[in-house]
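Throughout our pipeline, every protein is held as a single compact record rather than as scattered files. Such a record has a labelled line for the sequence and another for the backbone structure tokens. The remainder of this section carries one protein's record, kept here as part of the documentation:
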Amino acid sequence: MSCTITTVFIVKTEKEKNIFNDVRLRLKEKIFDEPNWYPKLSHSIHDFGGYAYLLNNNREVDDAVKLMAVPSNVQFDEEYLKTITAEINSSELSINNSLLWYVYVSDKPLQNQGNDNFYRYSIIFRFHHAVGDGTSLVALLIRLLGTESSQNYNEKLFKKLFAGKNSEPGKNRTYKYYLLNMFKFIQFWFTVIFISIGRFQNKNLLEPADKNALHSSKLSGKKTVAWGTEDYPECLNMVKNVKNRLPNATFSIVVATAISNSMTSFFKRNSLPVPDFTTGLMIILLKFPDTVPSKQVRLENKATTLLLDLPSTHKSESLLSALKNVTMQMESQLSYADALVVRFAAAELFGYLPINLGNEIVGFNKQTFILTNVPGGSVIKIFDGCVVEKVIPIAPNLRHAAVSFALLTYDDRFQIGLLVDKALVNSQDEAKKIVDDILESIKVLDKESQLLLD
């Protein structure tokens, strides 16, 4: 099954409208009328002997933009939207004379969305991972659909991450500064050549695949989709509080601890053996997207992956104690040098290897779960007064991954998307419980860390 990235937009508008035509027209103008702007989107992908290549064969907007199929006898609410998303996400995205992306737009508003007199429409975007990483794809969608006021979204989002990188004025730099940076440069590349390559060979090629109740040969590749979105900002600030209260804690460590506790709860709730460690594929962004609104978004996958043995929480006295264990594991296993080695293997070697062999090399068949965290920003306004109310990320769908977690912060609210193999979880309620337990674990971490200050 192709590795794909799915994103769900729920769009709010004050009046009932034909949003399908609006999306179709906008994408036609910005992609198919100017095919050289985004060749990955206007060209089709083909396969020959296990190798993939792009071909320009005059595709049209109707090849990519589809009307969402909603039976007339169902209640089209957000729960049913999850079912549609699961069907789209589990369908095969062929690499033989097909596009690398598709958009599914509803012409009917969602039902059971409260009494605020707004209409809410859904759009499902599905991209092959070769188009770009999750952050680049969010930037692309804003560039394609966003109003002029939203075009500086990327700059606003990433400027705080760029700040301080070169904050020391050049005139104040001494020879000690340059010697220190030279030493760091030599040390880094020594680590890459003599340590990281060996760790890559051991972790990705020699270690056996994960074995637990969530990772077995019984996986079907078909996924149940669930998500949880906050109605108002809460858990994001809690994660920041925990990070600031505890030494060495990072945003990723706090989130990983919450996910570990959620998976541990799943094992216990279903009377399954709880493994001491669960292997996960962490998706790491090495470079941020373009921040210049006047340019087309450069579509490339700037992400890489690292395998992580994430400790379960069942043997810890508290979640704070579990967080310390997670901190030690993540600090020892995740390094920028290791990420560069995996990135080189994926970017430089994949082009010369059959796809299945490449998946084995980067560990795509070893892990129980996938975790991706996409930075988010403020509210996105799109055409004709529409506002994107929810941006729900769905992590790459890999057949051999039982569970995939995707987190995005949007308007200071967590948006969490979950994929779980139907051979293990076929119930929307059980899948939603896994998501809810992540948010609940963050609240527990916030309370426990606050007690340290009292």
Summary: The longest strand covers residues 4-13.
